[in-house]
Each structure stands twice: as structure tokens, then as C-alpha cells.
């Protein structure tokens, strides 16, 4: 606030005084005259008019720049022709103004108007005007560039946020369909089990809907997976051998939610053969290593290596959320599939 007031109210007066004393310095150095030996009223008049000219110059330059900017359409670049037109306008107005004010004063004071006086009166103000114009226009260029970069960054962030929300939403329908299908068949045979499944589903949906906007503690993500696994066990084959081991050191480390789910989801979806599923999560000095192994039916071949929407979305989310900070390795053999995800927080 203080800086803007200084630039608006004080700086133009200083600018006018600098122009005036530069002209006096050049003229007095050449003639050997000392302007302070003149009548005080003449000096006061010249100084006062110089200050007035300073305010006019500053207003004029800002007005010309603003006028050009207002005529530009949003996003248009200032072309060299427009810049030269601005420079010509500023230079022309400067020459007109000083010859209207300073030239008559020089003609009726001291020893009259000389070629030296006329040269100093026109060139010195013009040089200061062009310097100030260059500073102002450069400042406007810098401001416009920063605003453009901020806008680009905001649009990029908005696009990424929208894309992340879309990718997250794609997990829900498939999972919800399977869960509701399980509860539907439980209703005929195991009402208590159906109630328990409904509670688990409610907990999972609550986490998906309300707890995924920011990073969460790893323990919350692992608790979510445990509930998901419990729900999947209900509809899994009785032959399934499930081993789950989560590192107790994984507690408050921060992680983006729902990144581990697709790997577990695929394991239950494609489990077969000996129906073994191993799910482990281990802490590392910089993050977490999450590994899922499952047996697969013999008819599933490597060419169909789980390249479904779940893993494709996971890869895209990892690229957006953990650029250069993740490693996802998958491997398919004749009767097993392994996926290992390493995240660096």
C-alpha cells in the first residue's frame, strides 16, 4: 500500500525534478552559469512546472500502455508493430509537451533560447521518458507472463484433479456390482452374514466417498483393504488359501488413497488353480512396497495379462500422483500372477 502511494503521488514529482536538474546541469556546465544566482521566483516557477510535467509524463506513459492493453483481446500477444506505435506515441507526446512548456520559459529567461537550450529541452526529457516507458512496459510484460503461467498451472491442476476424480470413480461401479450381488445371494441363506456384508460395504463406500480428497495415513488405507478382503472372502471359493501380512510399522505415513485396491481386486477376480492369494505390505525407509500374488487358472494366458481398466487407471493415477516416485512391476507365469508396487513418499 505504501509503495503504491509513493509511486502514484511522490515518484512523479521526483521524476520531474530529475529531468529539470539534468537539463540545468547540462546548460550550466556549458555556459558556466549558476542557476541559483537567478531570481528565486524564476527558479520556483521552473521547478514547479517541472514537477507538473513529471506528473503529466507518468500519467501519459501509463495511459498509452493501458490503452494498448485494453485494445488487445485476452490471450493476444503484443506485436512489434504495436510496441513501435506505443514508442512513437510516447516520444511524440513528450516532444510536444516539453516544447509547449519548457521552450517558452527558456525563450523569456536568461539570455534567450539557443540551439543548445532547444537540444537539451527536447533530448533529456525524451531519454527519461523512453527509459521509464521501457521499465513500465517490461513490468507489464513480466506481470502478464506470471499471470499466464499461474493460469496455465491452475488449468493444468484443474484438469489433473478432474482426471483423478474420473479415474477414482471408475473403480466404484464394478466393485459395487460385485458387493451387491454377494449380499443379494446371502439374503436367502445367511441373513446375519448379509447384515455384516452390508456393514462392510457401508464402511468401504464411506471411505471412498469422503476420505479420498487428500492423502491419508497408510493404516487407514490398509484398514480399508482389510474390510474389502473380508467382503471378498464371503463370495470366494472355499478352496481359497488367503494370506495377508501388513507391516505394523506402516501407520501414519501419508499416501494417496485407493491406489492399492486395483491390485487386490485383480487377485480376487482372477484367482484360480490352487486358489492361493498372498497380500503383503512392507515399510521401506522412503515409502512402502505392496505385493500381491495369486494363482491363476491354466486357461489364462500371458497375452491376457490383466490389462483391464483397473490396472490402466492405476498406472495413470500413479503417473499423476507419484511421477518418478513409483515402480509397478507385474509378472505372469503359466499358473500365477504377481504385482508389486513400490511408492516413495
From TrEMBL:
- The superkingdom listed in its UniProt entry is Bacteria
Q: Which UniProt keywords apply?
A: Kinase, Membrane, Transferase, Transmembrane, Transmembrane helix
The residue ranges of the Signal transduction histidine kinase internal region domain are 162-239
Q: Name the Gene3D superfamilies on file.
A: Histidine kinase-like ATPase, C-terminal domain (3.30.565.10)
What InterPro entries does the record tag this protein with? Bact_2-comp_sensor_kinase, HATPase_C_sf, Sig_transdc_His_kin_internal
Membrane-traversing stretches: 9-27, 47-65, 86-106, 118-136
GO-annotated molecular function = kinase activity
Can the keyword Disulfide bond be found in this entry's annotation? no
Q: Which Pfam families match?
A: His_kinase
Protein's UniProt name: Histidine kinase
